[in-house]
Amino acid sequence: MEKLLALEAYHLDLHCGEKLLIKGPMASGKTKLLTDIATQLPAYQFDFLSQTLDDNFIPGTVAENLAFNLENDAISSEEIATKIHKISEKYDVIDYLTTDIYELSTAQKQVISFIQILIHPMTTLLLDEPLFLPTDYTGTLIVTGDFDETLFDHVICLPDPLGDSPTADAQVALKRDINHDKAILSVTEIVSGVSFTVYQGEKVSVLTTASAPIADKLAGFAKASGEIDFYYENITHQALDKRSRKIGYIMANPNDMIFVKYVKDGHISQDILALCGLSDLTDRAIDTLSFRQKKLFTTACILMQQTPIVLVDQPEFTYFQDILAYLDDKGVTVILTSASDLFTPLMDRKEVF
Fold it and tell me: Per DSSP, what are the bridge partners of residue 125?
């Protein structure tokens, strides 16, 4: 096979068609390494999927974004329409083709950003923390994230820059004090076929398809078709400011939640800063943080609100077990929405839709 590039610092030659995984803890430099690799590749011969979702799009509808690369390659309008329809059906986004890209939920943006690459892929893909892997793709694949190493030809494991971050194997003791006689949240047909009840103090993982905006609907950022009851109060159409006092929502995309310039502007207590691994970053500008650090910052901000329910969309694994133990100790109900089963062992139960 033809050699694509040499990574001398890692004693690794990457050949065309091979797959490389870059792993490592938060702030270990995975994104930086991926970006450095991109500078070594021939221009316009690879696609790059950014963690910062909005960087992947042009203003316009979902269909216009899916068509963008195809139009640049002078593909006929008939073939463009066929390709868009086929991939939209495959990934269950056909109902969103006329929706403005910036009106989508984070999960929907993650899917669209991925399939706009897969609709007409280059021979090399660089994917920064993708939602899933493109199993049908046969070209060169360079990925950052926590994926099964056996799926790759090469793996680079970057060291922990702090040296004392919690590990995925660490165990936490939870009281799991659940009141099964008191339903804190009852959801009926929030989207078609999705109804469930969560009891006070419970920790529930809600597994859905990546394109289903369950979290946005629970938190009030998207219209729900069914009914949402907080204890015995119908909050389906309640104003966002009132809903947020009941449900603290940690979004999958932290950039949708951050409106301050520095970590210290969040006015976060020292104990929560420590809990989220931010103690040494209080004077840092937000735009200098890694994606994962931003996610932990928004988590800390929501913890400060002390809501009876904390809703986490696609949580960051680093520090999550300690954060879960903190919420458990305070009797907070936790709802986790994800397309992955990774966190299920930490929860009391799961709902699958």
Answer: 47, 141
